[in-house]
Sequence to fold (217 residues):
Amino acid sequence: MKGRYKGGKCLDRVQPGHAPEPSSWVRSQLLPASRVIVYQETDWELVQRYRGGDRAAFAELMTRYQRPVYNAAFGVLHRAEDAKDITQDVFLKVVDRLNEYDPKFKFFSWIYRIALNESFNLKRRNNRDDPRDVETSLPASEGDNPEKQVGDEQLSQRIRSALMRMSESDRTVISLRHFSECSYETIGQILELDEKTVKSRLFEARQRLRKLLAELE
Fold:
């Protein structure tokens, strides 16, 4: 269960002189690795606290969402350094645009869409679409044994190679559903589509992916 915030009064906007300086502080809050967190407040409560000048509230939002944002960026760009840069840029944009956030949508959907847009923009600027010029997998966990790592790497290579041959639209919907494990509702919010259209696009994208994987065997 999510607890309620019992601190000071939450304000609808940042008071003059209370908003934290974003750029250097956001960079300092990006963690090198994820950690186990017990969430006690909703995202909206944290947003309200930050709007009231509570810097720690935004640090908590960053802790919750830096890994999903990084994964979203990596899924588009396939480069660890680019994904790290995008993660930083996304949180800087979130700081600037937090007053635009509409709580009727999930915070995850809102920030994930920003991450995708920033990633696609960088990809277009760099004109990177060559499957031979990408990193093909996320770093393996320290607990994986060598044989499993080799098997996972080979499978990852095939999947990445197939995905890189697909359209941007196909890659996005498959990544959201199967890599980020988003619900149809969340995918719809991120891509601004109704659930029926999401299911239809996902079905067609899967069919094309299966065909490409068969060709790569």
Summary: Residues 55-77 form the longest helix (23 residues). The radius of gyration is 19 Å. The chain has two domains: 1-135, 148-217. The mean pLDDT is 76.
